[in-house]
Structures are given as C-alpha cells and as structure tokens.
Amino acid sequence: MQPQADRDALSEAERLRRQLHEHNYRYYALDDPQITDAEYDSLLRRLQELEQQFPQLRTADSPTQRVGVAPLAEFETVHHQVPMLSLDNAFSDDEVLAFDRRIHDRLNIQDDIAYVCEPKLDGVAVSLLYKDGVLVQGATRGDGSAGENITANVRTIRSIPLRLQTEKPPAQFEVRGEIYLPRAGFERINAEARERGEKTFVNPRNAAAGSLRQLDSSITASRPLSLFAYGTGLVDGWALPDSHRQMLDQLRQWGLPVNPLIEVAEGVSGCIAYYQRLVSRRDGLGYDIDGIVYKVNNLALQQRLGFVSRAPRWAIARKFPAQEASTRLLDVEFQVGRTGAVTPVARLEPVFVGGVTVSNATLHNRDEIGRLGARIGDTVIIRRAGDVIPQVVSVVLRERPEDAREIQFPRQCPVCGSPVEQVAGEVVMRCSGGLVCAAQRKQAIRHFASRKAMDIDGLGDKLIEQLVDQGLIESVADIYRLQLEPLAALERMAQKSAQNLLDAIKKSRQTTLPRFLYALGVREVGEATARALASHFGSLENLRAATEMQLQEVGDVGPVVAHFVREFFDNEASQKVVAELQAAGIHWPDMEPASAADQPLAGQTWVLTGTLESLSRTEAKEKLLKLGAKVAGTVSAKTDCVVAGPGAGSKLTKAESLGVRVVDEQAFLAMLRDNGLS
Ligand code: 5U1
Questions:
Q1: In ligand 1, which atom is closest to the CA atom of 84?
Q2: Each residue's pLDDT tens digit, 153-196
Q3: Cα 631-565-595 angle, rounded to 5 deg
Q4: Tell me: the pLDDT tens digits for 78-115?
Q5: Distance, CA 300 to ligand 1 centroid (Å)?
Q6: From ligand 1's centre to the CA of 537, what distance in Å?
Q7: Which end of the chain is more exposed for a tag (fewer CB within 10 A), N or C?
Q8: How far is the CA of 178 from the centre of ligand 1 (A)?
Q9: 521 pLDDT tier (thresholds 50, 70, 90)
Q10: Identified catalytic residue from 120, 442, 623, 651
C-alpha cells in the first residue's frame, strides 16, 4: 500500500494533467480559453513541483514534458509506413477546371463533385503519431518515404496535444499537418535577431524549418510555432468516416487544431469562388499561405481515384502569386524620418510579387545591409507578405555583376548635411540635425496636422513639401501664421483652397489635451500614451512639471517613455514651439486629473460592434476612454466587454464563443449614466 502522501500527490498530478490538457484543448482547438495564461502557468508550475518531488509520477504525455530533454547529437531517421504524398499544382482557373474534368471522367460521374477547400500553409509538413492516444513520435516529411525524428521539438509546440482528447483513442493514429510560424512571431524573432546583430530568417517557412531542426529543443520551445492538421496516415483501430470533412471534424474534436477557414464547395465553381475569397483575405491572415488545396470530399471516391507516382489524383494545390521574387537592386536611397532615423530604401527594378508591382523595399538599417552583404547591381530576393512593407531578404551572390558597387551609409544627413550618429544601445542611425533638418520638419508637420493629432484638413504631403521648401513654414507653430496670398500662390492652390485651409487651421485651434500632446510628436508617445498622460496629469502645466518618477506612475509609461517626455519638455526648442502654439491660440479644456473613482473602467478593454442608435461610435469610444477603458478593434480572450448594436457580426460571435461579456446599447447607456456620463 502506498503512503497517503504519495497517493495524494498521484491524484493531484492526474487532476492537474487533466486540467492542463483540457485548457490547452480549449485554447488551441476551440479558440475558447477559460483561464488566463498566468493561471495556466501556475497550474503547470504546480505540476512541475509535484513531478520534481515524485519523479515516478512523470508521464510521457505530461504537459511538463514539452521542454526539458537533453539536446540530441543528431536526428534519427523515421520511415513513414504510409508515404507522405506531395501535390500537383494548378496555376490558373483553367487548370483547376481541367483537374475537375479529369476527376469526372475517371469516376464517370456527371453531377457536381464536393471538394474540401483548405488554405495551404507555407510551413513544414509533419507527421504526428499517437499510440493509444499519446503522442509518441513527430517526424518531418523528408523525401516522403523517410524523414527525421523531431519528437522532442514537436512536443514543445503548445497547440499540438500530447494526448488525444478522447476516452477511446485508436491503437495507432497518425496525423498529418503543417507546422508554421505566424507572421507576428516571425517578425518578433527577426527583430530580436537584428537587435543582437545576428542573421535573420528569410521568411516564416525558413524560420519554422530552422526552429524544428534544432537539436536542442529548448530553442524550438522559444519559437511560437503552431500547427494545422489536414489529414491522416497510418490508422489502426478507428473506422474512417465517409468524408474528409468528417475526418477533419474528428481531428478537431480530439484536440488537433484544424484551420477554421476550411470549407466544402459543391462543384468546381465553388472552388473558384473560394479562391477569390481567400486571395482577398490573404494579406489579413496572421500566417503565410501559398495557395489552396482542393480535395475530393468523399473518401470512397478518393480511394477509387488513387494516386500517380507521389501525388494523389483526388487533390490539387491551386497556387497563389508568389510572395517572394528576385529582381535587381538599382540603387539605395536614404530616407529621414520624424525622429531623424535614417532608413536605407532599396530602389528596385519593378517586379510583380504578392499580387502587386513593387519597386521599393526597406533595408531596415546599416547593420542589415552589412548582414545581407548587398551591393548595388546585385540580384536580390524581395518578400512582400501581409501588410508589412516589402523587404530585401537575401542576395543571390552567384549572380553578382563585376561592377557591383558597395553601399555607402551616409555620414551626413542626405537632407540637411548634419552628422548622422548612432546612439549608444540603438541600431538605427539618426540625423543629429533635429528641427534644423527639413526632412524631420516635414515629417513633424505631417504628424502634427494628421487626423488623430490636430486634424488639419487639406494640409497634405505635397503642400507641406512646398511650404517647407519655400521657407513658408519652419516649425509647426508657423502653420498658424500662414497668410492667404502666399498660400494661394502655391502650385495646385487657389484663393478658395487657400481659404479652406486657413479655415481648417483656425478650427484646429480648439482641440483637446490628448490630441495636442500626441501632435507634439514626443518620441514613443502614441495616441494611447498621450491620452493616458493627459488624463493622469489633467493639464499641460502638471505634465511639464512631472519628474521621470512621477511620469512612470502613469499606466502606459515606463522609464524609456518617461525619459523622452522629460527630454522633450527640457529642450529649449521644444519649449519655444509649445509656447508659440499656445500664443497662437491653441487651447483645450483642462481635464480633472483622473482619480480611481473617475476611471472605474481603468485596466479594462472594451470593443464596440454593430450600430449604436443614440450615439456615434466615436462618441461611445470617447466616453469609454473617459472612464479609463481601452477601446480595441478586435475581440480576444483579454476583452472585458463587447458593446453590440444591431448588425453586429463576427466580433459578437467571437465574443460569445470566448465567453466575453456582451452588453446591448441600453445596458451600455445605463452603465454610462451610472458613471455620470449620459
Ligand atoms: N491544407 C493542406 N495542405 N496540404 C499539403 N492539405 C494538404 N494535403 C496535402 C499536402 C501535401 O497532401 C495530401 C493531399 C496528401
């Protein structure tokens, strides 16, 4: 008989494992988390403690086993019992129509065929083997017959269940799918590599493959990899359903993440419509896809169709326009931003990539040019994915022409000639000219006049160029000294447009403190921080008098931001501009410094969706901000409340599926009234 303490530990460990599996399943498979990340971590830590104390309690499927094995010397080879097939490609609608025709001919069927349409992830194909429901092996595709054993690395991926969520698992069940790195994770890893001066990954696929090929699984664990499952391999002890869709549903029920965008299309016209829908959504997805896989839904028909060489006859990959392309680097120009950051911009031979023609791409900074080893005249690979600006990701060295020229990073600002300096601890090079630099001035004016700042309608880029170049404006304060005649004499201006601009400038004099603070363009002070500073200090005078320590009492403000704010108000040139702006009549109602009682929603995130009848979205947002809430555009597990008016769509559905509180307009208005706002 075991001692009572051991039995208690055993049952507690079992309970914790069950809870952790369940929470993982809710988070990854159902997108419906019920506890916070911190609560999850605390359950995991308790289980780790128990397993450390009683090592005999440790099991292969324990969530603690995601990291922690010793690094491998090399990967073993895994032979796939069922080969991992590849796919034929289609590059046009005509080729998809031909695929559908071939299937009809082979099956001798006249009616429409149902196809499953799946986004084709641009990641790494893997096989996951579950024995009696427990993950025992992860392997790469390799050549389709044999791949590498990457079990330890696969275990670190939190969206991959270590145990299938079922009481009656098949004796053996092999899941096939794609491991990928979401774009945000890729950008983060590369940004961190740039900070450390290390080599960056060319694209998320390479980053995912590189992360999976680590012999030390703790490195893999630090990369936010994920998986979408799309098929099966070896199956023993489970009767396959009738359709591929049902099989995917079963995978999802067992806890495997299945792409929510998968749809069944009736007939090939549905497939083509799906392509159009997905192409238009491609940039907004959080991960790279390189096409769509169409699969005959009926598994018996799949069986009848069989496969040729290494590709099934019942599936095809409809490829999207490539997100990477090679082109020639014609020149490098250096742009100067509002804060003086000098950014190298590659001028390229125009090339069609990711669905658009690209002729400029960022080279980020001086270090990145060094890392890439790029020269003018080189053939370079550029990448355009999502809404990220196109980037030069590598150089094709073997195509380097003899006359390729080194890229010289300027020592002097290309606009004002001031020295370009590197601030200690920063990667970026900055023009030291401050507001002497016309480029920085133009950017500062652009920012000052922008919609979320002083909102001066009509003061656009072209006009700012002319105003600064002709010496009509030096600083933002000069905007308020502009006269009708010189304005009307500018290119593309006339009396009427000049008068409209002056009216807009006049109107902007009446503003709010958060807008004014944002407009000043203090480094690292975005809209939200400006709002937080304004509501904490209530007035410009209070803010100006605050020490760095006092500034850090504001929720959003850390030492870096506090330092920049202090630096701004201590700077004589800034003081002069602020004084001139106030002298020009810019004013705002002072705000009462916020107290906890004024900000009952402090720390909360609210989302507005649908139409509100008695107030506009902007009014609703301003009221929420006044009460201390953050107002977000998307619903997540971190959302505290969603205000849903008529016509609310996917945000409402998501809130309901996540269990986020939803209120209607009446309840929202009642809440505002209770807090003294009507
Ligand atoms: N979504 C998805 N990707 N993908 C890749 N499904 C899918 N199916 C594949 C491959 C190679 O192959 C099966 C059709 C065998």
A1: 15
A2: 999 999 999 999 999 999 999 999 999 999 989 988 998 888 78
A3: 50
A4: 999 999 999 999 999 999 999 999 999 999 999 999 99
A5: 18
A6: 57
A7: N
A8: 8
A9: very high
A10: 120
pLDDT greater at residue 101 or residue 615: 101
Check if the beta carbon of residue 323 is closer than 8 Å to that of residue 290: yes
- Pocket of ligand 1 from Cβ distances under 6 Å: 85-87, 118, 120, 125, 178, 230-231, 293, 295, 312, 315
Q: How far apart are CA 491 and CA 494, in angstroms?
A: 8
Strands across the sheet with 114-121, in order? Answer: 89-90, 315-319, 289-296, 114-121, 263-266
The answer to whether residue 626 is catalytic is no
What confidence tens digit (pLDDT) does each residue in 436-455 have?
Answer: 899 999 999 999 999 999 99
Which comes out higher in pLDDT, residue 405 or 648? Answer: 405
Q: φ, ψ for residue 381 (rounded to 5)?
A: -100, 130
For ligand 1, pick from 230, 313, 316 the residue to mutate: most ligand atoms within 8 Å of CB: 230
Burial class (CB in 10 A: 0-12, 13-18, 19+), 106: middle
> Given this model, what pLDDT does residue 241 score?
97
- Indicate the SS3 state at residue 384: coil
Amino acid at the residue 426? E
Q: With the CA atoms of 411, 412, 413 and 418 taken in that order, what torsion angle do they form, in degrees rounded to the nearest 10?
A: 130
From 103, 120, 121, 175, the mutation candidate for ligand 1 (largest count of ligand atoms within 8 A of CB) is: 120
Q: Enumerate residues 6+ apart whose C-beta is below 8 A from 535.
A: 514, 591, 593, 594, 599, 626, 628
Residue nearest to atom 2 of ligand 1 (CA): 120
CA distances from 443 to 414, 465, 507, 662 (A): 15, 10, 22, 41
Task: Please report which confidence band the pLDDT of residue 1 belongs to, taking 50, 70 and 90 as the band edges.
Answer: very low
Among residues 447, 451, 445, 484, the alpha carbon closest in space to that of 465 is found at 445
